[in-house]
From TrEMBL:
One of its GO terms (biological process) is negative regulation of DNA-templated transcription. It is found in: Cytoplasm. It comes from Aphis craccivora. One of its GO terms (cellular component) is nucleus. Keywords: Cytoplasm, Nucleus, Repeat. This is Programmed cell death protein 4 isoform X1. Residues 1-67, 109-232 form the MI domain. It holds the Pfam family MA3.
Length: 252
């Protein structure tokens, strides 16, 4: 809960410099802290990694702290933080570093994690690792956001590689009943709702989306009737902040 509080206060009441100063004090006091808390270096390392994953501190802060030569205990904490951040899908896995379920995380954080997860999947092509990270987020009620972000990525990328990769991922999630038909349809419906807005920056958005829909229909996890939902004219529909999903397109 402390990590969540720090993330929520950052930028409002707490500045990045103040967070860094706090860790500076803690790292310097580890020889005393370990007397009452033997695993203090591990705890501090986890906390530092989580703070970086929450974008409250930059990753380079670890190198900055290493140059200060605190103690061997501080080095243990810094090595722990570095290792957590550099394991495969480390930023996503840090969501559960304290055993906290994803449902307790801020919506904006979950959206960011899903975007990073999709980006890493497109780079690595590791389907099973992507699925594992999705499950670790523990937010089945929010899987429509994953579908939405995946489809928007397809539209913005406008290339076959992204279409095939995202279709493969969504089909695997659908077949494994990780993403339910309800969440799948809701995610696509949200894309339809903002297609007019997306088309401003991506004029071929409708054509790319229709091609991707055909691919998904042929893959067997979408019904052909979904093609009727594609907007045929400007609808002026917007996505409001009150929806609470932290998405990219919102009413000006």
């Amino acid at each position: 809960m402390t990590s969540i509080l720090l993330s929520d206060l950052y930028g409002r009441l707490i500045k990045q410099k103040e967070i860094a100063q706090g860790f500076d004090v803690i790292l310097g006091n580890l020889p005393d802290l370990i007397l009452d808390t033997p695993d203090a270096p591990i705890v501090v390392g986890c906390f530092l990694a989580r703070t970086i994953a929450d974008d409250c501190l930059p990753p380079k802060i670890i190198d900055f702290f290493k140059e200060k030569n605190y103690s061997d205990l501080a080095n243990q904490a810094l090595i722990k933080a570095h290792n957590l951040l550099n394991i495969k899908h480390g930023l996503t896995r840090l969501d559960n570093v304290w055993g906290v379920g994803g449902s307790l995380r801020p919506v904006q954080y979950l959206v960011r994690q899903m975007n990073m997860l999709l980006d890493e999947y497109l780079c690595s092509g590791d389907l099973q690792e992507a699925i594992r990270c999705i499950l670790e987020l523990e937010v089945p009620h929010f899987h429509h956001e994953l579908v939405y972000e995946a489809v928007v990525d397809v539209i913005e990328a406008m290339n076959t590689h992204t279409e095939i990769a995202m279709c493969k991922l969504l089909k695997a999630l659908y077949d494994a009943i990780i993403i339910t038909p309800e969440m799948m349809n809701k995610g696509f419906d949200r894309v339809f709702d903002v297609l007019d807005d997306i088309s401003i920056d991506v004029p071929l958005a409708s054509a790319v989306l229709e091609r991707f829909l055909d691919m998904c229909i042929n893959a067997g996890f979408l019904e052909r009737e979904v093609l009727r939902k594609i907007p045929t004219r400007a609808s002026a529909r917007k996505r409001y902040v009150s929806e609470g999903d932290g998405g990219r397109l919102k009413e000006a």
